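Morning!

This is the sequence you dropped in the shared folder:
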Amino acid sequence: MKKINSNTIFWHLGLLLFSFLFFSVQFYEVLFSPNSLLATASGDGIHGYYSYINHILNNKIGVHTNGLNYPFGEHLIYTDAQPFLATIIQLLPFLKPYAIGIMHLVLFFSFMLCANVYFKIFELFNVNKILAFCSALAIILLSPQLGRLGGHFALAFSLPIPLCIYFSLSFYFKGQQKYIYYAIFISVLAFFTHPYLGLGTTLFSLLFYFISQVFQIKKINFQKALNFILLLLPIVIFKGFMYLTDTHFNRPSIPYGETIYISSFKSVFIPYYKPFIGVFGLTNELNADSWEGLSYIGIAMCLLIVITLIISFKIKINSPILTLIIVSVFFLLFSFGYISNILKVLGIQPMALKQFRGLGRFAWYFYYCAPIIVIVVINDFIKIKLNSYKPNLIYISIGLIFLSFNIIEANEYHRNIKGPIFNEQNYFLENKFTKEQKEIISVVKAKSYQAILPLPFYHLGSEVYHRALKDVAHLSMIISFQTKLPIIGHLGSRTSLNETETSIGVLNEYREKPILKKLFNEKPILIIQQGDLIKPEEERLLNKAKYISEIGNLKLFEIDVNTLLNVNSNVLTNFLNLSNDTISKNVIKINNAKTPFYKWTSTKDFNKLLTLDSNSFESGNYIVTFRYHFKQFNLKDINSHFIVESYKNKGNNWDFFGDIHYSQRYPNYFVFEQKIKLDSKSKYVFFINHDMSDGTYFISNFCLRPDTLNYFEKRNGKIVSINNYPINN
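The structure's back. Tokens below.
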């Protein structure tokens, strides 16, 4: 039995202690009271919490989860619910009340334990202990995954990547088969935490193993070929599991904006926080897209890379480090989108890779590999070339400089992350309910409902349709968890297009809903409304609902399921017959022969629909509606924006009203409908554009009318449409 080195234990305990102290500086509230706080109560964050805790407490153990996307539910993998951790807690019921606190602690200790893994990696290369200790701490402080604590919790688990690197290197040095199995195990767990982690760790293990064997080509044998196949197992296991368990069909195969969330040279090498921002004379402003590709390695690491490039000509680079260089650079180029572009030119577009939109996340592997390369090369150089110049002092100096610079940058980095997060109470705990939440729950529980319908309606995740999140979305998830009522609405990933169209169709009072009639029960639907409604279909729905009460800024309604689902095309009150083109003071209905009316038009062009001169209409609320026709149902042909540009007092402003395909879909067109507010003293230009798409479309049945007016059209004496919705489809 191998004797445990007490000196090694001392180093590892020291790493844990210092790691904890560093993270405690900014995150002490959540570390010392992990179950009482939420990182956020909005955006992706509340969805991550809701999907995770709702599945643990309100669903059975398994892959199907109810909550969002009623009445269909969703596969657990597509909900960002951290399936592995959630299932472990479900199997240990005494942990359920502390599920959120456990998640917080696991996330933070995942960062902390990375330092211990790095120390083990440096031991493989016989790196000086003090240099290894300081470097291991320095690396974890700027981890790019720390930025995921604000909402993408499943992506914040940093430990799988260093472990994957460690097992790959351990197999190289020791040749023991167990390290292959360890790497496989970690990648499988990573897949069932978040598919991005699973694919990344599997791809890393495969590339490292393959390239390391190229350098030993004469030694390739059956076992080595078998190992390469074994390293593919995580993908096979995950894909097989999904094939057998996923019953939600017609998921989109290609993500929207597959080249948007990429990394770049600036997001990896240029400081973006004080005190070193601008030190290279370059600005590095963050936005939603660039944040996805952020993997800044630190100014100290940038300088050490330069030193490494210089001294690498003085010593021989060993094979595992050379392999790490090749693999890490590959991941870096992949995160920049270069590898995908090359594959496209070659006509190679693997569907498995096209599933992953956030290519910038693969820059993390460069972040975690670069310090190993740099520290090992510098350590070897000192050992070989500077052995007579007090090497221990040099080791200590480099280690402390590396750590000190990263502490300076981490202080600002952690502060900027911590600033907007972990300031919310844990609203999933009963003793943390607000007074208003308690009142809402009391009202809701007084009657038996089957589901919650939030207005404004939200539905994200299909990569095509996109009803954006409003404040009511976050509140609906909290109410849903507390009342165990599912939500008609969704926030997920790769959501079934069929299910999405059916869910959005619940708002369409002019169309039959046979699927929902089969899946809904007889209980009424609870409607919760918060904020203004800009979709006329939502206002029409509320007009049919029964008002219950108003609590705070939330209005509660209920609607009978038959009233919700039955077609309402026979009630024509306050309707105007607009069968012919009409132009009056407040009503404009046109079928223009000019582009883009009834003529196929490029989606990349700016195409004007209507110009309203000032004083040519009355001020007030209007509804604009038209039909957007497409040749094929793909993002190229349906991807266009509707925009209103206003001019007043020599100034102009764009009001962006969303993508056309966020509307009700019919076989070869969308019925777009939007509420807008017009001021008679301004001039307006209505137009359509999308600067990324290159498909074709045309417009028909354009109508602008006051929001108090409904209209119908007749053909051959029969009503063919109401408010631009066909009634015979």
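Headline: The longest strand covers residues 620-630.

More detail when I'm at my desk.
O.
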